[in-house]
């Protein structure tokens, strides 16, 4: 039997955008965003194709993919659903407050109805009303969750309220671990999942992005408590989205979904370490990455029990 892990969901939700474009409102603090360099219609078509191919690659690897369509023009970041909701073992779902006003329309009732119909959902905790109080916590972008050790790692930013993080951790029974993180230019990193990926037996983390050396050591030691191999990422690898990956349960075992660009940035020794634990599944999404996110941002992992046998 292929090995499984509570850290690695076997089902995911994705959004296929029909009018994709980098979000001008999020460019203010997302320094990973770049200009697509092409006309809007060409960018949108290419992005749709990239999501379609990525979803097919995941399905072919044995991951169950729930693919939703976004045909509107008011939600440029809809391709990144992991920011507005997350799911947790025991049937728990969280809905999050979003920093950019035009991201708040990404929350979709049809996605939540699918979760309730297909999986055993016990409760839904909705934090989105706290947008009125300027409190934000953008899901598993703001937090990187260790489901095995029950830890929520979070880099401080405009999109991560420590008050709301504490509230989330109390509700969902996680230990919060908060730190500052900056890019190579000393700018705060907008989302934690850009610099950190936690798998069952490994963690990819840009420790050099944590300027406080004491906190850097503390985070590394906390990650190692789970007896994980640490793959330390450089600033250049973070900029190439090497940290923005996700471990999933495939048909033949654990896989690591990451972008082709991210894989190219890794050193042979780092790849060898990862391949001791997972099969690597590179996805080619260069257009999506212009929006400042990569594979992890595109995938909302479903840590829920199915109501009926999966027919992935």
Automatic annotation (TrEMBL):
Pfam families: DDAH_eukar (PF19420). This is Amidinotransferase. It comes from the Bacteria. The keyword Transferase applies. Keywords: Transferase. The keyword Transferase applies. InterPro entries: Amdntrnsf_FN0238. It comes from Meridianimarinicoccus aquatilis. GO terms for molecular function: transferase activity.
